[in-house]
TrEMBL record, chain A:
NCBIfam families per record: PRK05409.1
Coiled coil start-end: none
Record Gene3D superfamilies: Divalent-metal-dependent TIM barrel enzymes (3.20.20.150)
Protein name: UPF0276 protein
UniProt xrefs under InterPro entries: MbnB/TglH/ChrH, Xyl_isomerase-like_sf
Signal sequence annotation: none
Amino acid sequence: MLDNAPRFDHLPAAPGVGYKPQHFTELRAEPGPVAWIEVHAENYMGDGGRPLAQLRALSEQFALSVHGVGLSIGGEGALDADHLARLKKLVGWARPASFSEHLAWSTHGAEFLNDLLPLPYTTATLTRVADHIDQVQSTLGCQMLLENPSSYLAFAESTWAETDFLAELVKRTGCGLLLDVNNVFISATNLGLSAQGYIDAFPLHAVGEIHVGGHDEDADDHGAPLLIDSHGKPVVDPVWALLDITLAKCGPRPVLVEWDTDVPDWPTLRSEAERAARALAPAA
Amino acid sequence: MTVSQSIFRKAILDPTQAVPEGLRDGANAPAGKRFSVYRNNVVVSLTEALQVAFPLVYKLLGGETFSRLAAIYVRQHPPPSPLMMHYGAALPAFLEQFEPLAHIGYLPDCARLDLALRASYHATDAPALAPERLQADPERLVQMNFALAPATRVLRSQWPLHDIWRLNFEADAPKPRAVAQDVLITRPAFDPHPHLLPDGAATWLEHLSTGKTFGAAHEATRAAIPDFDLAQALTLALQTGALTDTTKDT
């Protein structure tokens, strides 16, 4: 359990974007409503060169969120001590306003599978993830945010609802949560649950950041909709509606637009950030 | 029914494995095709990472052959760490043993060139050696030490590696000649670039990088390669920012 009391004033309650190097010049010249950026931690763990130079320049203009995609917090094995040390180094010099990771696993033994893989919601998983979060928070010396996953399937062995599971992690570790409403929409559609019911059950008091993003549409073996978390398209209206519902309940929070594949030009991404700014306006 | 991560991982990397029991859709039916989303994410994301990391190999093979190669490689050699910027370090050695592409003898060296360019891109920043530093009196100059800049890489190839790179990435590049070529990679600012090294220069740079003084490196190189042209090698090294100055000022 982290001693520091949770603080959710780290990132501004304003729109942010997932940073893409091709936007470097335009983002700095014409940020529009963008007040902060998020970077994937692992892309900035080299020794030098353009990535680190860009991050240094950007952090002078924007609040920074470091978002890990490789820590494997849900892994059955111990956390990778080398990777944790690299994170500590990055957080040490980049001084982000927030660090977040995923409720997922990606490393098994000495293999990194480069995807966010799902976990069964059991008490054994809960204990293990809580221990790992404790280790991250005590190593980094700050609170971390944990992101809800996008689910394509469920585990028969699960005994916890995802929202209860996350609420219990907050209680045990003092971590905050990153609520990805696109993931909520995807998981609810894929598993036949109510997205609004999920938001109603979510521990919104612990939310330090919200994600929106685009997804692809497919179908499963029975023709049921199967949404894929691709981050390659504009945010769809039902996800914006879910954001409105969430903000109405919890008040303004930092809202990030994620667009990681088929990355559009800067004006297109900025217009998504402008849409997020409009969603935040009535909540302020 | 517990689905361990070991079982999950095995089923992801081996498409002939059945979907693990204990995985369900929303109606508690077997997950079926839903599991393929993870299989697909892993193989496609790793294939795309290799494609970005090995532009020369990709250009030589074309998308279809490269994807077939990657589908085999990613399953045999998943990334050993979450640092995807280093993924593919085992590809040159893998290609040395890979029968279906054995007819492209220069392919492993092309993979080494791609790796070296990427390593250079992420290497530590360091100021290049200023030419003025060489204007010391000759007796002092021969005692000076110069190291390779952290972003500098030297590749020796029995193939015309530099010509092959040029043919694939430069307009109006000549046809590769049937010669062995050594390649120097440097990164003056942020973008690494390969340069053709003249005869003996790779040996000279190796001597400098192992701590020999300017004078000793020249002598050792001349002993092995009598017609080594120091002026030519030094000019290239200075123009490309290949060296840093490690001499302690007295």
